[in-house]
Amino acid sequence: MSAVRDSGPAPGRKVLRAGPAAWTFRPRVVAVPLVGAALLVVVAAVNIGKGSSYIEPLDVLRTLLGGGDRRETGIIFDLRLPRTLAGVLVGAAFGLAGAIFQTIARNPLASPDILGITWGAGVGAVGVIVVGGYRGQVSGAAAELGVPLAALVGGLVAGLLLYALSWRRGIDGYRMVLVGIGLSAIGYNIVYWLLTVGDVDDAARATTWIVGNLADVGWEAVGPVALALAVLVPVTLVGAHTLGGLQFGDDTARGLGIRVDAARGGLLLLAAALAAVATAAAGPITFVALATPQIALRLARTAQPPLAGSMVLGALLTVGADLTLRLTAPALPVGVLTAILGAPYLIYLFVRSRREVRA
Amino acid sequence: MTRLRAEGVRLGYGERVVVDDLDLDVLDGSVTVIIGPNGCGKSTLLRALGRLLRPKAGAVLLDGKRIDRLPTREVARVVGLLPQAPSAPEGLTVADLVSRGRHPHQSWYRQWSGGDEEAVRSALAMTGMDVHAGRVVDELSGGQRQRAWISMTLAQDTSMLLLDEPITYLDLAHQVDVLDLVRRLHTERGTTVVMVLHDLNLAARYADTLVAMRDGRVVARGAPGDVLTEQLLSDVFDLDAKVLPDPVSGTPLVVPVSAHLRPDPS
Amino acid sequence: MEVTVASPAGTARDGIPGRTPRRRRSLTLGALVACLVLAAGLSIAFGARTLPPAAVLDALVSPDGSEADLIVRSLRAPRTLIGILAGLALGAGGALMQGHTRNPIADPGLLGVNQGAAFAIVLAIVVFGVRDLYGFVWFGFAGALLAAVVVFLLGSVGGRGSTPVTLALAGAAISALLYGLISAIVLGNREGMELFRFWHVGSIAGRDFAVAGQIAPFVVLGLVLALVNTPGLNTLSLGEDVATSLGQDLRRTRVLGVLAITLLVGAAVAACGPIAFLGLIVPHIARAVTGPDYRWLVPSAALLGAILLLCADVVGRLVSGDRLEVGIVLAVLGAPVFIHLVRRRGLVRL
Ligand SMILES: Nc1ncnc2c1ncn2[C@@H]1O[C@H](COP(=O)(O)OP(=O)(O)O)[C@@H](O)[C@H]1O
Ligand SMILES: [Mg+2]
Fold first, then answer.
1. Structural domain spans, chain B
2. Whole-angstrom distance, CA of residue A30 vs CA of residue B253
3. Do C283 and C230 form a contact (C-beta atoms < 8 A)?
4. Is residue C54 part of a domain?
5. Do B14 and A358 touch (CB under 8 A)?
6. Does C28 reside within a domain?
7. Highest-scoring range by mean pLDDT, A21-25, A40-44, A197-201, C154-158
8. Mean pLDDT of the residues in chain C
9. Per the UniProt record, which residue ranges are transmembrane (chain C) (predicted)?
10. Ligand 1, closest atom to CA B47?
């Protein structure tokens, strides 16, 4: 064997040095979230500007940075911002949660709805909508507070159950997935059964919630999500440095010095909490958590879903879908469009990557 | 005579070309061993010979016909191939795994015959895996698992065997066992064998023909004594080594000169 | 080689020592068939209305037009038959699906079959004004077939054919797309919502023999294809390289499998709505019983599917006076058992 010749970075990686610190990175992994974020700013600005009185995207940006006039500031901060901000936060949370679940499970299909968290939240929310509507009294306060609260509780309970039932001398990704399937089957069936119990208008309201809806989100819903994400996202990102090792399987990960069970258990709980909080705010926006990690992975050409990329693309897909919807069919919930936009793009990406590899 | 040959094949994955314009004739009834550094394309070539990888140019011919155009089941009765890192589903016993080697000899109207049974029995016995026949494959040691897979390939009962690093996980005694087995197949049944080996001394001792590869090209081929020279080791492996006659077999014996033993040039 | 001692496992009579004995597996299959007969008996004997056993027997042997006759012959009997057909189909379809994708979460709806059927049925309701179940079955079946073909083609674009990951992802993407479209249509159409939400829970009640007759040929054909597919699945489970070198035509095996899954699951979904969970758990349970050999696993999963479906249906009838559809009973009763199994045995990996 020849001697190790140089200590430069592996091909395809670049090194960033600042004094004694140095990080290696792959350009595509950095480019995906950066480009995504730039697009997100544009889409978000357009989305905020849209409404009964149109505001130019540049004016939106200026106002957001503090330079707008009284009228624009009022409109944007009081009325328009919550919806778009909720889209960004919720989309990012779903993207991140999906990326973590898929990595722990080593399975591209593992997403909060397959694992039951979404459906736990659904039982709570749809229960309040249907049972409340049935009794004919839950419209005001209970609907506004009760639904997200019930969803949050339902989602967290499902997450804790997932954790507790998957734990058996540690969390095993395979077991977690199977347990999650069981949980989601229960939740899913209860939700669809609840739909048949109430009357058809409640069923429609509940379906809107199930699909995921940003239209009615105000500051009172954005605040808690923002707070929760402000805590959860940094913790998750710090905890997630172990993910790179976890994907190789337990023995290798232990060999790399990772406390496998603690790492996986903690990450599972964090991802479940992210998904539950996001679901409580806007409903289980279909497909974001499943698709964006896979899209980010293919764009960044990495072996496992890149976290930052998944977050940014999750936000972009959600806000982009919201904008498209408002331009075309304002009555529909946003989740309809995340699937209709996201699915073809995901298919296009993997068809293309297969062409390259196999041609 | 050569039944299996590669003619001007270009092999690769996606856009990437790993092997280009390579010719190789596999002499019938001989043992051919491919050597070369990691990543030089040995497995790629072997997979092409076993029609697992379709050449981008050129062709692999079996009895003069393009192997990828022949019915795959027919090929499977002539050529058996053991990939480098096969994986079995959980819970499969050794005997069940080996029985699956009979697949090309079965059909929906003939599921299991006396011939199948005989072939599986002798395949198990030949690798010494008959004592482990009832055990579950994923609970075996690395070497036992390797031998279970070799048994499966033997049960296929083909006149040509392509083996990718068949002795990599084995202790020295079992390495010799497997290679002795390969020679025995060769003498008793006239089996043609192409295998990839990393142990140069064993390669020299068991090969009729040695093929040395580097960067997807065949650098040298011929009898081990002609191929395995100090110059070739330096060219192909960047290895500084002495070549002596093997005291047991007389074939070349490679003794590497390690860096810390090398006389200091200064 | 090692000195060969007398082999410890297996018996000489059973051929190769260590090969999983046929006899034990045949016994398992026999026991499952017996259980299915028993379950069918229960499904005919018990229901929301309590009938004395004599009356049930009478209705079967010598019908005289009494109310018991009506209940047994035109409600319970067709319901049982549909339960058997759908259960066999979902169990076998689920086992094939997991075998082909080598993914334990692959439910039989993954090829887009469930959402394809649902989408077609929504179109039938909203665009074509179809209201009755017979119409739903044909539309559902056509939608399931179409969706499965699209998913399979997408999963095989480029390269030598579909792989587990591309199939799974294409299925998930198409399902999500159709789900979005369905929601969009249903939310804008009150009547569609009304019909659709009931179809969506999954039930074997209220269907008569004509519906069974509609799906039976497809289920039978699907089961035959599934059995023909099993030796191929066995070699595929050793990995694609080994399967190819054993002379397996990968593309043909996949096409055959997808065809069988589509026929089976499409027929079941068209007749009963989505009861996907059944097809998901049953193969795991069957695998724990038979081991990884698909020639035994697929028939066992089919039988188990029918048994579980009938039992869940009977339980639903008994405890709720038939107000709980079989889909929800299956999930609420089956999922805890499934989770318990997962925890206790650590189910076999694919
Ligand atoms: N499935 C694959 N896709 C892309 N590249 C591959 C694949 N398999 C092997 N390669 C590349 O082809 C080259 C030759 O690999 P291989 O034939 O496995 O080498 P070896 O001589 O060690 O067996 C290597 O550079 C390897 O990275
Ligand atoms: Mg190799």
1. 2-78+159-261, 87-157
2. 51
3. no
4. no
5. yes
6. no
7. A40-44
8. 82
9. 27-48, 80-97, 109-130, 136-155, 167-189, 209-228, 255-282, 294-312, 324-342
10. 17
| Single pTM value for the model | 0.79
pLDDT in tens, A36-70: 999 999 998 888 888 777 888 888 888 888 777 88
**Into how many domains does chain C fold?**
1
From its phi and psi, is residue B41 left (phi > 0), alpha (psi between -120 and 50) or beta? left
Cβ distance of A195 and C183 shorter than 8 Å: no
The model's pLDDT over A329-341, given as tens digits with 9 standing for 90+, comes to 887 888 888 888 8
Confidence of residue C39 (pLDDT cuts 50, 70, 90): very high
B43 pocket-lining for ligand 1 (C-beta < 6 Å): yes
3-class DSSP state for residue A311?
helix
The CA–CA distances, whole Å, from A301 to A26, A182, A298, A352 equal 10, 33, 5, 12
- Cα distance between residue C207 and residue A26, in whole Å: 59
Dihedral pair phi/psi, residue C324, rounded to 5°: -100, 125
Per DSSP, the residues of A154-184 read HHHHHHHHHHHHHBSSSB-HHHHHHHHHHHH
Q: What is the pLDDT of residues C311-346, one digit of tens each?
A: 999 998 888 777 778 888 888 888 888 888 778 765
Checking C56-59 for CB contacts under 8 A at 24+ apart, the result is none
Give the list of residues 6+ apart from residue C192 with CB closer than 8 angstroms, or none: C122, C125, C126, C185, C186
| B101, B120 contact by CB (below 8 A) | yes
Instruction: Return d(Cα B239, Cα B257) in angstroms, integer.
Output: 8
CATH, range A88-358 = 1.10.3470.10
Nearest CA residue ID for atom 26, ligand 1 = B39
The C-alpha atoms of residue B68 and residue B117 are separated, in whole angstroms, by: 30
The Cα A174–Cα A116 span in angstroms is: 15
**Could you give the residue ranges of the DSSP H alpha helices within B190-262?**
200-206, 224-227, 230-237
For residues A270 and A246, the model is more confident at A270
Interface of C with A in 265-284 (CB under 8 A): 277, 280-281, 284
CB–CB contact A109 C103 (8 Å): yes
Using the predicted structure, report yes or no on whether residue A252 has a pLDDT greater than 80.
no
Enter the DSSP assignment of C7: P
The rounded distance, in Å, linking the Cα atoms of C328 and A185 is: 9
**pLDDT attached to residue C7:** 38
Residues of A in contact with B239 (CB under 8 A): 1
Indicate whether residue B211 lines ligand 1 (CB < 6 A): no
* pLDDT at residue C95 tops 90: yes
More confident residue, C275 or B95: B95
Class of domain B2-78+159-261: alpha beta
How much is the pLDDT for A71?
A: 81
Nearest CA to ligand 1 atom 4: B13
Interface contact C16-B120, CB threshold 8 A: yes
C127: CATH: 1.10.3470.10
Whether residue A358 has pLDDT greater than 50: no
Is the CB of residue C292 less than 8 Å from the CB of residue C218? Answer: no
- The domain in which residue C235 lies consists of 35-40+67-344
